[in-house]
Amino acid sequence: MAQRLALQRLLSLPARGPLASHSRAFGTSAGRRSTFNVQDGSDFQDRVVNSPKPVVVDFHAQWCGPCKILGPRLEKLVSKLEGKVLMAKVDIDDHTDLAIEYEVSAVPTVLAMKNGDVVDKFVGVKDEDQLEAFLKKLIGA
Amino acid sequence: MGSTLRKSQAVRQAPGGAPPERRSPAGGFFSGLTSSEQNWQFCLYQQEMLLPRLTLYWSGNAFILAPAVMITGLFAELAELNRLVGNHPQLFFSWVSFLLGGAPKLREGQREAAAETSQPVVSVRKKQIGDHERTLKAHKEEDNPQKTMEVNGLTPVPDSYDYDLIVIGGGSGGLAAAKEAAKYEKKVMVLDFVKPTPQGSSWGLGGTCVNVGCIPKKLMHQAALLGQALQDSRKFGWQFTEEVEHNWMTMTESVQNYIGSLNWGYRVALRDKKVTYENAYGEFVGPHTIKATNKKGIEKLYTAERFIIATGERPRYLGIPGDKEYCISSDDLFSLPYCPGKTLVVGASYVALECAGFLAGLGLDVTVMVRSILLRGFDQDMANRIGEYMKEHGVNFIREFVPVKIERVEEGTPGVLKVTAKSTAGDQMIEGEYNTVLLAIGRDPCTRKIGLDKVGVNINEKTGKIPVNDVEQTNVPYIYAIGDILQDKLELTPVAIQAGRLLVQRLYAGATTKCDYVNVPTTVFTPLEYGACGYAEETAMEKFGEENIEVYHSHFWPLEWTVPSRDNNKCYAKIICNIQDNERVIGFHVLGPNAGEVTQGFAAAIKCGLTKEQLDNTVGIHPVCAELALKTVTLVGRQVKTGIATGIDLPLMSGLSGYGHSPALAGVFEEESVKEKSLWPFCCVVSLPKATWPLSNPTRTKRPVADLPRLSPPGASRSDGGKEYPELEAIHKDHQGPTPGPAQNSPKSGTRVEFKGFSLSHTINLI
């Protein structure tokens, strides 16, 4: 149902839609996109697990209010790092198997992944300072 | 030896005349021997003769034994032969061959039967199919190779199952049962699949209640109530200059977001409890075996020791042109991506009235098309009151009409639809244009396409419901059923949950408690909420007899509604007591705000066997509506004659508002002679809003419903002879609800005096 509503919104919006705009707004300067939406399991495997750079995985849902706050905030900070960290967004309704695999029970859940391993994780909205510290730890460690 | 004997034969002449030992006469075997000598000789003789005797004995027996052995051997041979070749005709022929040619012939026959031309020789279920060639032939020729597995037409049951329990249906009942079973370390699977509606709506895990039932309904009902509260708030001092409007999309999005979180929550809960969940359509294909088809069409087979069917129901369609293409149902309403606009609601079930109620509360133009009575199965007096309230709050009712055709006049979301309807009491036809047509004419169980015939589960062919015994078991011992699909049981979420949990506890935890379907409380969330527990008035009268029933009732005005001067004398409470059983409360009905909250506590009390006396002894909480339900009042004295007690409304200020009973009024509740007490000082009859002017007839006869404007002529006979929707008969089997009650009119009871409760402040205004 959430999908149906989202579809309606997508169609009714004159612009390209919220999801597309996110990935376009950030990374256009560098020509690379540091934030992307995971398409399926193999896409996750390629771009997250096998990624040479550390990846922040944001598990979110359409029906989740706090996700809508955390998402943009995290993206902003990730883009500031100019490619040192990538960010993957996973909609848990679309990719339930991935969510179950990584034991996501509440959203938003953010995983920090390096070389295919989960090195850090948090659940719920955090403010910018906490997010910065989280990202610094991921790059530094 | 003889000489020895002989020597002893020399008889010693015993001195003194001892008698000599007797000797046997000469000749014969024992000749000339004394008796002791004879005994000795006989023993010796036996010894000698032992071996010859045994030989004789056994050789005699051999004559009997040998044939017996032979015959036993023969039987064994024949049995072997039978086993090798199967079926009965062979046995006969094998006898014949034995009789004709003896054992050698038999052996020849055996050899032929068992002769194979190639290896391996395959046996299936102790029956020999044959050699390699014959086996392949059997497999290819059979349409269903499974048949070779069948014994007496039944496929054998695997000895170990994939799961202990498979639950078909992930709704209220199914999930509760699955989670409970997982607690007892059982291997459980839940199959849940939603077939999209004709309009394309679908939803996630959780069933009807969570997705398209109780949850979104209550949230939207709350949205409507808030609208009303906003209007009231001005009187309470809130100031806002703009007009307040409602945005359908905002509300729907919020509701759907919450439902999404519930769907996810259920998935996590199942995962945590290690219950396997498959989003797949479950169908029985054989004993203990189910086929699960997911949305990509991939099929998997699973077996389980036990099954619970909890597939629930889906809305029924009218079966008229245009219904599936243009109409929506409750399955679509709660996720409708556009505001429904001017809506026609077809039906008079609680689904219809609740939806009509909140749509009207949100400011939409709503019409309800009713075929006959409102809320079939509920207390009809209360149902009529609900209808009245809705009518006064802007819901239009079209009584005794059914739609016959739906056409689209204009495209769009929502577009414009033209509805043609026919009267049930004549030939009159009417037309109307609406943006949306919402069908709420009933729900049908999802039991016809899940392969129940393959496992032999009986269903009621007409309604599709499954009859079960009092432990929720179907006619097939390892298949159980719970929830809305049960025949003659209540269609409520808490009932399904309770039944599911208790069933699993009985199966796996050795419990014996059965689900109690008696005195289950329920609430209808119409704009004026209605809570009930126990018997309806007409049902109680039918069951216990009119003279054994006492009905206590009162109107009340919630304090919160006084300031905005809203709807006085609409709220109503009624308690039905069984006089023969110590005036036990057997029915509780309340119409007013938060009726569900009020009813829940009373339901517990009724379960404990509440009597009227106990109710009277309970002190009320003030100022709340529930205390007014508590202090319901009845007719004062059954011997009331014509006069004062009838035909007036008596306000009871202090009594019902809880500031203590006034002694004078206390006398009012005495048995007799109401008219002797001067009640006139307490009557502010003239300034009271004229709500109910009851009975002119004081004797204990049927109460004419002079006070309630009739929604349809009482006792109107329908021209179609009471048939159900004739259009539906060809397509749907008619669903008969619980007892409609002896009359569609008001309940029959003794005379009553209506008492109203007012708050003190109101009284002060009046005095």
UniProtKB/TrEMBL annotation, chain A:
SUPFAM superfamilies associated with the record: Thioredoxin-like (SSF52833)
Keywords, comma-separated and alphabetical: Disulfide bond, Electron transport, Redox-active center, Transport
Start and end residues of each Thioredoxin domain: 24-140
GO BP term (any one): cell redox homeostasis
UniProt GO molecular function: protein-disulfide reductase activity
A GO cellular-component term linked to this record: mitochondrion
Disulfide bond in keyword set: yes
Signal peptide: none
PROSITE patterns associated with the record: THIOREDOXIN_1 (PS00194), THIOREDOXIN_2 (PS51352)
A Pfam family reported for this protein in Swiss-Prot or TrEMBL: Thioredoxin
Keyword Transport found: yes
PANTHER family: THIOREDOXIN, MITOCHONDRIAL
Family in the record: Belongs to the thioredoxin family.
Name used for this protein in its record: Thioredoxin, mitochondrial
Biological source species: Hirundo rustica
TrEMBL record, chain B:
Alphabetical UniProt keywords: Disulfide bond, FAD, Flavoprotein, Membrane, NADP, Oxidoreductase, Redox-active center, Selenocysteine, Transmembrane, Transmembrane helix
GO molecular-function terms, A-Z: flavin adenine dinucleotide binding; glutathione-disulfide reductase (NADPH) activity; NADPH peroxidase activity; thioredoxin-disulfide reductase (NADPH) activity
Start and end residues of each Pyridine nucleotide-disulphide oxidoreductase dimerisation domain: 520-627
Basic and acidic residues bias locations: 720-736
InterPro entries in the cross-refs: FAD/NAD-bd_sf (IPR036188), FAD/NAD-binding_dom (IPR023753), FAD/NAD-linked_Rdtase_dimer_sf (IPR016156), GSHR/TRXR-like (IPR046952), Pyr_nucl-diS_OxRdtase_dimer (IPR004099), Pyr_OxRdtase_I_AS (IPR012999), Thioredoxin/glutathione_Rdtase (IPR006338)
Organism: Hirundo rustica rustica
Protein name in UniProt: Thioredoxin reductase 1, cytoplasmic
UniProt family annotation: Belongs to the class-I pyridine nucleotide-disulfide oxidoreductase family.
GO cellular component: cytosol; mitochondrion
Cofactor needs: FAD
TM segment ranges: 56-76
EC numbers on record: 1.11.1.2, 1.8.1.9
Domain FAD/NAD(P)-binding as annotated: residue spans: 163-500
UniProt region (Disordered), positions on chain: 1-29, 696-754
GO terms for biological process, alphabetical: cell redox homeostasis; cellular response to oxidative stress; glutathione metabolic process
Function of the molecule: Reduces disulfideprotein thioredoxin (Trx) to its dithiol-containing form. Homodimeric flavoprotein involved in the regulation of cellular redox reactions, growth and differentiation. Contains a selenocysteine residue at the C-terminal active site that is essential for catalysis. Also has reductase activity on hydrogen peroxide (H2O2).
Biased composition (Polar residues): 1-11
Reactions performed catalytically: H2O2 + NADPH + H(+) = NADP(+) + 2 H2O; [thioredoxin]-dithiol + NADP(+) = [thioredoxin]-disulfide + NADPH + H(+)
